[in-house]
Amino acid sequence: MASDTHAAPGAVEPFTSIDLPLPDRRDGKVRTSYSFGADRRLFVTTDRLSAFDRVLAGVPYKGQVLNQLAAWWFHETRDIIANHVIDVPDPNVLVARAATPLPVEVVVRSYLTGVTDTSMWRRYESGQRTIDGHVLPERMRKNTPFPGAIVTPTTKGSDGDHDVPLSCDDVVRRDLVAANRWRDVQDAALAVFARGQTLAAEAGLVLADTKYEFGYDDENQLLLIDEVHTPDSSRYWIAATYDERLAAGEEPESLDKEFVRLAFAAAGYRGDGEPPALPDDVWAATSTRYIESYERLTGEPFHHGEYPVAPRVQHWLHDHPRETGTS
Fold first, then answer.
1. 101-218+231-247 adopts what CATH topology?
2. Which residues of 7-43 are buried (b: 16+ CB within 10 A; e: fewer)?
3. Cα distances (angstroms) measured from residue 108 to each of 93, 168, 228, 319
4. Residue 232 contacts residue 256 (beta carbons within 8 Å)
5. Residues 259-303: pLDDT tens digits?
6. Is 214 exposed, middle or buried, given 0-12, 13-18 or 19+ CB atoms closer than 10 A?
7. Mean per-residue pLDDT of the chain
8. Over the stretch 156-169, which tens digit does the pLDDT of each residue have?
9. How far apart are CA 281 and CA 95, in angstroms?
């Protein structure tokens, strides 16, 4: 976890780091992964919260929500496209097929929204009407729907760099993904998004947009990887209050990390420089929102995992030497 992040207060200390005796450690903004035997990786999802392409806080139980909710969505969409899930042996752990990620993130949007400088809304508000290769209608209002879902890929920012928006043509033109494979990716992304919107609606939520990652295994099979329709990767609004808040010119009620982005934006921060400290109640409310999203979508109660998390995961690993190859 970056040294300038803030620990969110609560009954437990956020789970922000782990060290396991496994090879090929890779650290992402939220997940740490390791090689886990032949053609497998072990992913540990922490409580780190990233926004504006940097880690900003630790939020208790966030990692568990992400890991378990992603596993639920992988199961609910496995008939559309294969995914990398093998097992979920711990609330914060995923064992997955090893995959080579495609070098683009696949964002699917159904609403004109966002607060970052590269968001669709901010660019539309500045006067742009052709954005990421899509021609948008005139006189659209913030947080209103497009005529249909659109795919807006981005590069993958690293080392603090921001993701750079691309058009779908850019992906092929720059040789980032072959044309045939890119068509398959877009078809899968739109189909998974449609399934997500249907199940979200049944839970009283609007799935406004989301981000997917795809990869391929040793047999060149296309896989959905990383996470699916979590409050980190997706924008969820409460359907019951959407129309009323839109009419009043208010932001939709959200169950995702947009709540945090808006809090930072209200404090004058949009991703550059040192982030300001946010009130404690922002982080408490964020944890509550993540848990509510899990319960609404799965229809199951959230069972809080034991803290501290790192010793729990280390103990599980110690008890499974055959699977880990650490005996």
1. D-amino Acid Aminotransferase; Chain A, domain 1 (3.30.470)
2. ebebebebbbebebebeeeeeebbbbbbbbeeebbbb
3. 26, 12, 12, 41
4. yes
5. 898 899 889 898 888 899 998 889 999 999 999 999 999 999 999
6. buried
7. 92
8. 866 556 678 999 99
9. 34
